[in-house]
What we know:
Elements (H helix, E strand, L loop, with lengths): L2 H24 L5 H158 L1 E3 L6 E3 L12 H15 L4 H9 L2 H12 L3
Antiparallel strand pairs: 1-2
Helix pairs in contact: 1-2, 2-3, 3-5
Amino acid sequence: MGLLQKAQEQKKIQKQETIETEIIKQKPQTKTKDVRLSEIDLEKTKQELERKKHELEEMQRLAKEKEEDLKKKEEEEKELEKLNKIKQRQLEKENKIKEKQLRIEQKRQEKEKRVLEKQLQIELERQEKIKKIEEEKLLREQEIKKMLKEQQEEEKILVRQQKIEDIISKKAREKEEQQVLLAEQEKKTGFKIDTKTQKPTKTNKPELADIDLSDEEIGQALRIVDNLLEKLPEDIIIEFIQSKDFELYEKVLNKYNKK
């Protein structure tokens, strides 16, 4: 049974007692003894009513306090609910701020990533360009070296051709001189060199024996041999000129051709 219900029942009892008291007052007077008994009963009833009244007031006070406590508790619950809502809104606001900061941070990281990727691409393109330039430079250097080598080879060939031409010119001059010397030799020795068979033929002049040869005569003989060698094929002449034996031949020929 609730306190409020109990208080309501007490009010009903009090009302009933009030009605009974009014009924008793309205009854005709009885005998003195009965009146005394009625007064005693009435006094007891009054005391009982007073006691119940105090109990009722106490119950009303307790009910009021309980009601105030409930009201206070409800207010506290409302305040707590209000605070919870405020905290919830604050938390949602903080979460939104954190989400916004997270999006900003993600965008910043993505931007930095794009910048780094672009820088890396630029660096790769720069390295590729440098590599290409170095390769082109190397190719140019190789081409220049090849051209220089070819030029050196051409110069060597030109020098060699010039040397061969000089030798051929020299031999042509020596051939002319040889013809003059042969004519003189025919007068001295009485022999004539056949240009076709390259063999000496006897002339009408008397044969000379035990002839002492001078350096000049040896030189003339060497020129005769040189003239005969000139009639060899050109490739054999070039091969002989490029050999080491040609140096010795040239030294001997120069030695005995001095006048």
